[in-house]
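Figure 2 data, in text form.
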Amino acid sequence: MIRRLRSIWIWGASASVIVFWCPVLAVVWLFDRDPLKRRTGRWFRSLGPVLATINPWRIHASGSEHKKPGQAYVVVSNHQSMADIPVISHLVNDSKWLAKAELFRVPVVGWMLRMAGDIPVDRSDRRKGAQAMLRCARTLRQGCSIVFFPEGTRSKDGEIHAFNDGPFQLALRERTPILPLVVEGSGTALPRNTWLFGPSQDIYVRALEPVPVEGWDAREPAALREAVRQKMVDELGRLRRSAGRA
């Protein structure tokens, strides 16, 4: 019963904050003359830490020193739950996200995604998927990072599963370094297939050293993909050991 009441309060408080944020974001968007709407995107991303404070989470963010100011990255993160989105915003706020097209059709949230300039992708339509990647490429050329969940969906067991080639093909084609992020603890904070939040939780998000694409064969993205994935798997193990979860 306590878990249900707490979850109801969290969802209600989060919804109230989101509804309040939308008109504020609309004002920022209205006066944002940047074609990429960078200022609007930063305001939207700042919603993440606010939502995280509503939840019974203790966020431990590290590795920001690995990011070079003004450098665009292809950012790749593992995906444990919907909680990853506000958690990652503690480290990456000046970026665009590649997100499922369905999210852009959700009232209020979808409006904010569009105002922030995030990029919808319909994975059931290869042509639309290719168009989304072309838009990602244009965004990188304009100096703005793109955030991907290369697993394509949330992990059921918290492990890092197979990656899609898309982000790595993009990085090689655009000669853009890859910034790997590792998230640990969000899977039990907001489990799949339930609206109930987990107990008070430590959640870790860490940026690893960027992986340059120079020297990698652009015709073989799989090698780069697996090298980056292995770095993330190794880091996830270290995070779990340091947190006493191994």
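Caption note: The chain is about 45% helix and 15% strand.
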